[in-house]
Amino acid sequence: MTPHPAIAQTQHWVENTVIGLGLCPFAAKPVATGRVAYFVCDATATDDIYRCFVQALERFLLADPAKQETALVLVPEGLATFTAYLEMLAWLEDAIASADLAGVVQLASFHPDYCFDGADMEDPANYTNRSPVPMFHLIREELLEQALADFPLVEQIPAQNVERLRALGIERLRARLADACHR
């Protein structure tokens, strides 16, 4: 069965950018062992995206962590603007806190137009969080803590990523993202 186009794009991006550029030293193992769950939400309305996210979160939390270490909730049809995405992200973070899931699951954010607060849109550093489609990354806190304990100098990862991406340059990063988007 052919995967949903958003899944194919995301898998290509994860393998070639996230893992390929070494942006996340923790990504390779769950990808290689097939322990990344992909949930596609084709909704466009914010209430529907919220419901879709909550359903994906529930399925993820009920799954065996040995089979679903991490998950990506992909929203290929909605949240086209980064502002709309950030509003949804805040809403989802509040939902996680209200459900007493802080410390159980962490939410990481990725969007095609991701821009760090105060950064220039053209700063290659933004590509640490730019993805082919808007997505929310669900991370099991317990497994993350284990991974961090085994990784020396974890606090250096963000600065190393910024240096690596700025060295690659904006044109090469745009081309990588465009390549993933055309899968």
Can you give me a brief rundown of this structure?
The chain has 183 residues and is an alpha+beta fold. Helix content is 48%, strand content 12%.
Order the strands across the largest sheet as they lie in space.
1-2-4-3
Shape: globular
Instruction: Tally the beta strands.
Output: 4
The largest pleated sheet is described as:
4 strands, mixed
Describe this entry's structure for a reader.
This protein has 183 residues and is α+β, with helices and mostly antiparallel strands. The chain has one domain. It contains seven helices and four strands. It has helices at 5-19, 28-32, 46-62, 82-98, 141-149, 157-168, 170-181; strands spanning 36-40, 70-74, 105-110, 135-140. The chain starts with a helix and ends with a helix.
Descriptive key words:
183 residues, alpha+beta, 7 helices, 4-stranded mixed β-sheet
Blueprint (SSEs and pairs):
Elements (H helix, E strand, L loop, with lengths): L4 H15 L8 H5 L3 E5 L5 H17 L7 E5 L7 H17 L6 E6 L24 E6 H9 L7 H12 L1 H12 L2
Parallel strand pairs: 1-2
Antiparallel strand pairs: 2-4, 3-4
Helix pairs in contact: 1-7, 3-4
